[in-house]
Amino acid sequence: MNQRPIFAADDAVVVGASTGGVAALQTFVAGLPPNFPAAVLIVMHVGNHDSILPSLLARSARLPIRHARDGDVLEPGRILVAPPDFHLVVTRDRDNGRTGHVLLSRGARENHARPAIDPLFRSAAAAYGPRAIGVILTGMLDDGTAGLQAIKACGGKAIVQVPEEAQAPDMPESAIRNVAVDRVLPVADIGAALERMLDENLAAARGQPREVPEWVNLENRLMTETADVETLSQIGAPSTFTCPECHGTLWEIRGTTPTRFRCHTGHAFTERHLCAEQGEAVEASLWSAVRALSEKEKLLRQMADSAISAGYAETAGDYLAQAAAVQRDGEVLRRLLVSTEATEQPA
């Protein structure tokens, strides 16, 4: 049986989504026509859990769609989705740079996510330059902003979902605030806009050299290689913060908005993600303290029982008094944690 011929895409559309992303992506893929001329790559924050995202999107899409596999050729009119627990990045290093290929990486998490949006966007920026278009949809915090900046720095275009329409407007708002985006649109209108922009890209990019800023190349390298101090020093300076993932020193990346950090292991965070991670670490520590206090109380009461059995009533009284004090401390800490969680719930 003859294999279907493979044609490499000259253009790449990369899409990032997080909270509320399934519904937004279903609307997005439904708006892409059957003869769509670019390769489409999608990252949604799914972590390392099993994902049926391609089958969910296939119900709405008129284009073939599946999880990406390492080595896949980027073809026009085909949608590839980042598989769970792998960064999806692209390269055009083979065939003299004419053909785009998928590279799946178990590299360090970025913004506590793998797959993350920024690695895909940065790699597409370097590989496709002015023939890359980045699309940011609904999501919390600001993953994707730095990747969209890379696409713009390499001559590509940027589209962002209207924040008011997004279930979680943080990611679109961050992109609009920090990137010179080309379109801010309802998701249902993005497909038609992409077709027009691809035609514009073809004319604008004809004969245009692809210049990739050094910071984009360096950050792409950090996805597949262990960073050393010399590499990090080219793009940042040591900060006073430690990585919440590996506890190494974080380096603050120079000249970035929003502020971003990297460690030598490769973990990367915006300042908002770093703050969220530190908050989770504090909460985890406090709940551990609640557990430890509860166990200490039980142990003291057990020691009091043993003292009573041995005829040491005064010693038992001391143990019970200590147990009561520990119980009060634990209740105060628990109430503080519960009240804090309640105030942080979204309206």
From TrEMBL:
What is the originating organism of this protein? Pseudoduganella albidiflava
Reaction(s) catalyzed by this protein?
Answer: [protein]-L-glutamate 5-O-methyl ester + H2O = L-glutamyl-[protein] + methanol + H(+)
What Pfam families does the entry give? CheB_methylest
Q: Name one GO cellular component term.
A: cytoplasm
GO annotation, biological process: chemotaxis
Give all residue intervals belonging to the CheB-type methylesterase domain. Answer: 6-201
Record keyword tRNA processing present: no
The record's section on PANTHER family has:
PROTEIN-GLUTAMATE METHYLESTERASE/PROTEIN-GLUTAMINE GLUTAMINASE, PROTEIN-GLUTAMATE METHYLESTERASE_PROTEIN-GLUTAMINE GLUTAMINASE
What keywords does the record list, in alphabetical order? Chemotaxis, Hydrolase
Q: GO molecular function terms here?
A: phosphorelay response regulator activity; protein-glutamate methylesterase activity
Q: So which residues are the signal peptide here? A: none
Q: Which Gene3D superfamilies match?
A: Methylesterase CheB, C-terminal domain
- The EC code for this enzyme is 3.1.1.61
Q: Which residues form the active site?
A: S18, H45, D143
This protein is called protein-glutamate methylesterase
Q: What InterPro entries does the annotation carry?
A: CheB_C, Chemotax_prot-Glu_Me-esterase, Sig_transdc_resp-reg_Me-estase
